[in-house]
Every structure is written in C-alpha cells, then in structure tokens.
Amino acid sequence: MTTENNLDFASVQAIVTTQSIKLHSSELHGVLTGLVCSGFPFESHEYLVMINDLFNNGEGLPAPVKGIVKQMFSEVWQTILDDSYGFTLMLPDDDDSIVERSNALGAWVQGFNLGFGLQHKDSPVVSEDVKEVLADFAEIANLSEEVEEDEATEQAYFEISEYVRISALLCFTELGSPPEQNTEVETVH
Fold first, then answer.
1. Ordered domains of the chain (ranges, CATH)
2. Confidence band for 5, pLDDT divided at 50, 70 and 90
3. Which residues make Cβ contacts (< 8 Å) with residue 22, sequence separation at least 6?
4. Which pTM does this prediction carry?
C-alpha cells in the first residue's frame, strides 16, 4: 500500500521553509495523524481548513505547501491502513543530531495531541489505554531539550519513538474510521 514517492522530513521542511510558513514538518505530520487516529473521516477535506487555521492564520496555504499537506494526509492513511505496520513518524534522519531528532519527536507528539483534540473535542470519552497514550505523549512533548549525544540517549530515543508509533496505531485501532470498502486511498503525485 505504500508508494515509492513517500515524503521525507528534509524535503517537506525545505518546501515549507522556502514558502515562509512557520511550521515543523514533524508537528504537521503529528496533527494529521492525530486527526486520523481519533476518527477523522477519510472522505472529509476539512483537515485543510484546520491546517490553514493552525499554521497560517486561516489564510490559504501556498500551492506547494497545500500539495504537501494533501500528500501527507494521503500517506498517513495509506501507511496506517497497511497490514504490514508500515506507518512511521515523520522525523529527521538518524544522521541528524539527537537534539534535533528529540525536538522533532516532541513536536510530533504535540501535534498528535492537538490533532486528536481537534477531532475528539466533542466526544471526550475514550478508553483508559487511549487516555494513558495522550498523557504519555504530553510528557514526551515536555521532555528536556538538554540531551546527551551518547549511546544511552540514542537507545532511549529509539524506544520512545517506537512506543509513540505503536501507540498511534493503537489509537487508530480503537477510534479510527477506516474508509468505506469501495473507497480506495488515493496517492497524490
């Protein structure tokens, strides 16, 4: 279900930066994932209005950024529905500093909680597992920015990011609203 043209952190961040939009690629991916995992319908295009409001003061996004948002939304759906658990977080590569990767992970979970809250604000009843995930994500978002560049920090980062990935899938399993059987998740090129 995945494609060869999947977006990556560096290329998305480069496009967003050249368009002078103040957003972090990881946070955007987190918001879209939070929406999807909390039951946002695949068929709705209201996510574009939400993204405009959150990241561009309600103004329309420049065409390149709007294209990225649409493709990212499509890819979140594709990977989250993938039976081989191909869903990944949009984070900087392992070549980037642990500080940058940790900050991006914090931005991702912050975005997830924001997207989740936007979709789930009118129906606050969720299971204890989902409540625990949201609380854990809030703690992860507030982790100290002072991290050591060592093997223990690398291992902790890997474990936390994997926990976040699996927890997002858990939320989708519990609250997500898969597309109708006759609706195919489109890939935007």
1. 9-175 (1.20.120.740)
2. low
3. 55
4. 0.90
